[in-house]
Each structure stands twice: as C-alpha cells, then as structure tokens.
Amino acid sequence: MAEEKKSSTSSGPSGIGRALSELLAPVAGFGVTFSNMFRPAVTEQYPFVKHPTAPRYHGRHQLNRYPDGLEKCIGCELCAWACPADAIFVEGGDNTPDGQYSPGERYGRVYQINYLRCIFCGLCIEACPTRALTMGNDFELAGPTREGLIFTKEDLLAPLKEGMLAAPHPMVEGTTDGDYYRGDVTAPTSAQVDWVAEQRPEDPTLEAAGRAAASDTSGPSARKGAK
Amino acid sequence: MAGIEEKAPGFALGTISDLVGLARKASMWPVTMGLACCAIEMMATGGARFDISRFGMEVFRASPRHADVMIVSGRLSQKMAPVVRQVYDQMAGPKWVISMGACASSGGMFNNYAIVQGCDHIVPVDIYLPGCPPRPEMLLHAILELHEQVKNTPLGLDRVKAARAVEAAALAAVPVQAQKGLLA
C-alpha cells in the first residue's frame, strides 16, 4: 500500500488528471459489474421454459417393440450383466403358442430397473443384442419413495403406436426372429389380428391394427404374394 | 354435509396451513452438505445459469442452525455418516432432506464396505433423486417436488391425523419380505 502511494506521487499523472483518476478509482472496480448489466441474462427458466437436452442425452430407459407390437426384449439378461451398478433385474420366460410376447423362444417376463442404482452410463444399451433397450431424453425422475423408483416392465415398455397390435399374439406367419430383427416385418398381418380377435375380442388395439394390416404392402406376407 | 365452506368464495377457504406451507416452501435454506461429485452439480444449480434463488434457496448456510433443508449430495461414506447425522440433528425443525444422486439414495455403483447404502439409513429422506450426477434441472425438479410436498403438509390436529393414517397404512401393508409379485 505504501509503495503504491509512493509510486503514484513520483511517476503518476499530475494535477487534474491525477485527481480524476483518484475519483474514478473506486468506480473502475465495478467495470465488470457494469458491463455485465448490458449483456443478456444467462438464466434458464427451467420449470417454465424447458430447453431440450442434447439428442444423445442418457435419460430414462425404454423397452421397444417391433412394428407388429411384439416386444423386442428376449430376456437374455445381457443388460443386467453389463450393468456396473447392478441396477437391472431381468427374468426371462418361455414363449408359448398361447402367449407369444416376443419373436423367438424367450421373452423378458420380469424387467426391473432400479433408478436409485442406475448411473445412466448406457452400457446396457450397448449390450442389448436386439436393440430392445434404448434411452430417451426424459430426466424428471425424482420421487418420494425408494420403491417408487424401481421401474417395472409396465413403466419401461414403449407405448403401442398407432397400428401396433398388443402382445401376446403369434409371430407373422412364415417368419423367424431373424426376419424381425432385419426389419422385414412392418405391420401386423390379418392372421395376427384374427388370432387376437378370437382370444381377446375387446382388445382396444384391434381396430387400428386391422387397418394397418389391410394397408400394409411391404410386409413379408405381401411380398410373398407378389412372388 | 353442505356447509358454509361450499358457498364461500375461494379466497376465504385459505387456511393457516396453506399460508404456513407457502411461507415454508418459499424460503428454504439449504445447508452446505456437499460430499462428492453431486456437490458440483449442486453448486452449478446455485450459479447464474440455473439460479436456485428463483425459488428462494440461494442461501447455502454453513451453519445447520440456519438451514431448513439438507441436500445430501454425493456418496456417503461410513466415516462421514455420524457427521451428517450430527448436522441433521443440529438443524432446527421443520427440516427436510433431499437425497441427491444414486450414491446418496442407495449406494449407487459403490456396493462395498466403505459406503452407506443410502443416506436414509441415517436420516429420514423426503425426496430421492436419481442420476449420476443429476443435472441441475433434475435437482430443480426434485426441489419443486419437495416444495409441493411442503406446501401440502398438514398442521396441528390435521398433522396428528395424517401421521396416524400413515401409521395405520404401514401396519396394514404387506411387509417387504412377504412381497413376492412376479419375482420367484
């Protein structure tokens, strides 16, 4: 402090200039503050204005379906094995002719993700052989109980899109699970719709699925007819 | 049961508990309880971009006597647990706890001897927040959930009644070890 004074008296501006600089010295310290007043505010108004996350943000999981409504999950437990936090519990079940939930032999009978263990690393997504498990951008997950944050299959399963037929129902006739995986099945067929209409006549997805089956021209059954 | 309350205009129905709930939720001061990486996100929430002061919470108190809410942010080690409990005990009631992040809520990926498997082992938690770490928006969402909870907290005789109802429900519920569901 003393050195500063000495230097200002010896080599600083003299007379009126020095008086002015001494007068403005306390104000100069506010330079950053004043300049920031004229910049736009950076605050995000989160609950009122929600900015979208990055497209590949690791949010809540989703169990996907094939276009005819069968589940993609085959209950192989590879996601549970990949999980570093042991957050996933899977128990597979056998598909039967009366209860075909996914193409092939097996389906995920029990599927639970404990979101209080999950670290959203995405290793389960990489492990999934049928791309059944993916992550969305949904992050509002807080809850008042531990039990409530264990999401079960009903919570995780993707909702049926327009034209999908609710599982269980048989696979498209003449296809294998490989055809499903390669994307050859694009819509439910009329045989599947008939089967569901016989087993569960009051199923709400029947009508839209029937329309989708009638208008589908690129499915395996349609192509078979063309051959 | 048609009484005067069905004819009264809306504003006259406001009760003391509504007023108290509003006052409590509008100025909750958190205690500084940063334990690990979640604390960085908690600090970011206090910063200019997410600005926790929009909800009257910008004053992170170093003294638990001044604080209303404890945000347990980060993994809670066995060694730290008594300290966290002491800080909680020193807070004046009414007080709330947010368990921020996977580690504080359940131990997260650290299922080992060093980490308490969820801070609800030592303090009563009001809101659990998943994420590793949760982004500031997630913390804000949890805080708003807690505000909703605090706003609707019953007072006086209603509070006693609510506590009795919760106790009765807990006694009637199936114990966790007897819950089988789909699990074999």
UniProtKB/TrEMBL annotation, chain A:
GO biological process, one term: aerobic respiration
GO cellular component, one term: plasma membrane
Record bears the keyword Iron-sulfur: yes
Enzyme Commission (EC) number: 7.1.1.-
Catalysed reaction, written as an equation: a quinone + NADH + 5 H(+)(in) = a quinol + NAD(+) + 4 H(+)(out)
Stretch list, region Disordered: 197-227
Residue numbers binding [4Fe-4S] cluster 2: 83, 118, 121, 124
Keywords: 4Fe-4S, Cell membrane, Iron, Iron-sulfur, Membrane, Metal-binding, NAD, Quinone, Repeat, Translocase, Ubiquinone
Residues binding [4Fe-4S] cluster 1, per UniProt: 73, 76, 79, 128
Pfam families hit by this protein: Fer4_7 (PF12838)
Location of the 4Fe-4S ferredoxin-type domain: 63-93, 109-138
A GO MF label: NADH dehydrogenase (quinone) (non-electrogenic) activity
Subcellular location: Cell membrane
Top-level taxon: Bacteria
Cofactor(s) needed for function: [4Fe-4S] cluster
Cofactor note: Binds 2 [4Fe-4S] clusters per subunit.
HAMAP family documented for this protein: NDH1_NuoI
Function summary: NDH-1 shuttles electrons from NADH, via FMN and iron-sulfur (Fe-S) centers, to quinones in the respiratory chain. The immediate electron acceptor for the enzyme in this species is believed to be ubiquinone. Couples the redox reaction to proton translocation (for every two electrons transferred, four hydrogen ions are translocated across the cytoplasmic membrane), and thus conserves the redox energy in a proton gradient.
UniProt xrefs under NCBIfam families: NuoI, PRK05888.1-3
Family per similarity comment: Belongs to the complex I 23 kDa subunit family.
Listed name of the protein: NADH-quinone oxidoreductase subunit I
Automatic annotation (TrEMBL), chain B:
GO biological process, one term: aerobic respiration
Cofactor names: [4Fe-4S] cluster
EC number: 7.1.1.-
Signal sequence segment: none
Compartments (UniProt record): Cell membrane
Domain NADH:ubiquinone oxidoreductase-like 20kDa subunit: 37-146
GO-annotated molecular function: 4 iron, 4 sulfur cluster binding; iron ion binding; NADH dehydrogenase (quinone) (non-electrogenic) activity; NADH dehydrogenase (ubiquinone) activity; quinone binding
Annotated SUPFAM superfamilies: HydA/Nqo6-like
Gene Ontology CC: plasma membrane; respiratory chain complex I
Membrane protein topology class: Peripheral membrane protein
Chemical reaction(s) catalysed: a quinone + NADH + 5 H(+)(in) = a quinol + NAD(+) + 4 H(+)(out)
Amino acids binding [4Fe-4S] cluster: 37-38, 103, 132
PROSITE patterns assigned to the protein according to its UniProt record, in alphabetical order: COMPLEX1_20K (PS01150)
Keyword Methyltransferase set for record: no
Cofactor note: Binds 1 [4Fe-4S] cluster.
Subunit structure and binding partners: NDH-1 is composed of 14 different subunits. Subunits NuoB, C, D, E, F, and G constitute the peripheral sector of the complex.
Family indicated by similarity: Belongs to the complex I 20 kDa subunit family.
Database matches in HAMAP family: NDH1_NuoB (MF_01356)
Purpose: NDH-1 shuttles electrons from NADH, via FMN and iron-sulfur (Fe-S) centers, to quinones in the respiratory chain. The immediate electron acceptor for the enzyme in this species is believed to be a menaquinone. Couples the redox reaction to proton translocation (for every two electrons transferred, four hydrogen ions are translocated across the cytoplasmic membrane), and thus conserves the redox energy in a proton gradient.
Protein name: NADH-quinone oxidoreductase subunit B
Gene that this polypeptide is encoded by: nuoB
